[in-house]
Amino acid sequence: MWQVSGGHGRIDRAKALESMDAHVADGFTTWDLADHYGPAEDLVGAYRRRYSSEPGALRNLQFLTKWVPRPGPMTPPVVAEAVATSQRRMQTDALDLLQFHWWDYTDRRYLDALAHLAELRDAGAIRHLGLTNFDTERLAHILERDIAIVSNQVQYSLIDRRPEVRMAPWCREHGVHLLAYGAVCGGLLSDKYLGQPEPRGSALDTTSLQKYKRMVDAWGGWGLLK
Ligand SMILES: NC(=O)c1ccc[n+]([C@@H]2O[C@H](COP(=O)([O-])OP(=O)(O)OC[C@H]3O[C@@H](n4cnc5c(N)ncnc54)[C@H](OP(=O)(O)O)[C@@H]3O)[C@@H](O)[C@H]2O)c1
Questions:
Q1: Residue 208 CA, ligand 1 centroid: distance in Å
Q2: Average of pLDDT values for 173-192?
Q3: How far, in Å, CA of 71 to CA of 102, rounded?
């Protein structure tokens, strides 16, 4: 649901909810979102409210969110407030999966945050605890501290195969799942762009296309891709 966060055009709330219905009708069961993806958590809350009186309508659906805090003290009240905010916005007593992000490994307060998140998971406020964009070294360090982590969400595609080097083998060995994003580089890895001139400027009209074009450039450039 990054696509609702503001960099892909205006989001009409009613149409977004209709679109969620259409996805469910087509067999989609799982959404990925984050606290900072604009109204994503609120849309999930509205969707849940809409079906709250229909038993079973939401049974097979799951909504995976993220917590991306600004660096700061990670005390129990700070962590509990973040979880409560997502619960309130998403209209649920238990977040299906909370994926934690941290900006700076030299600031070791991420370990405080994860310890408190694990307590909240054990208390039932979170079903599963995951990470996003963590490297293998810190992932191993977190598990050594007996903090159970089910997943790490990382960029992985034909042009960004970094997770294959250490992350994927380590995760396989330790039972941590990888959730891949950027798998089609926001559409750049599709027929639409195959053999086409390098998209530039206004042709890159979403934050996704801008982000993944930078990935293509870092990888080897458009000449190699097309
Ligand atoms: N953890 C993180 O740091 C992080 C970062 C980025 C994304 N994510 C998550 O991953 C989710 C998926 O987004 P993503 O960034 O990973 O993008 P992606 O899956 O690489 O690309 C999805 C986009 O590709 C385009 N697309 C798909 N099939 C296509 C086709 N056949 N032809 C042309 N275009 C096609 C569509 O763009 P249009 O809709 O514009 O047509 C679609 O929205 C996000 O919503 C977010 O939840 C997480």
A1: 7
A2: 97
A3: 8
Tell me the percentage of the chain whose pLDDT exceeds 90. 97
- Please identify which residue in the block is written with the tokens 């054990």: 122
Res 55: pLDDT: 78
Instruction: Report how far residue 65's alpha carbon sits from residue 48's, in angstroms, rounded to the nearest whole number.
Output: 15
Rounded average pLDDT over 57-70: 96
Q: How far apart are CA 201 and CA 157, in angstroms?
A: 24
Cβ contact 130:98 at 8 Å = yes
Q: Show me where the domains of the chain are located.
A: 2-183, 189-226
Ligand 1 is surrounded, with C-beta below 6 A, by 1-3, 32, 132-133, 153, 181-187, 190, 192, 206, 208
Rounded CA separation 50/162 (Å): 41
Residue 135: strand pairing partners? none
- The pTM score is 0.96
What is the band of 226 on the pLDDT scale with cuts at 50, 70, 90?
A: confident
Is 2-183 assigned to CATH 3.20.20.70? no
Whole-number Å distance between alpha carbons of 179 and 167? 12
Yes or no: say if 130 and 151 are a contact pair by the CB < 8 Å rule.
yes
Å from CA of 160 to ligand 1 middle: 14
CA 34 to ligand 1: nearest atom: 47
Atom number in ligand 1 closest to CA 99: 1
Closest atom of ligand 1 to 186 CA is 21
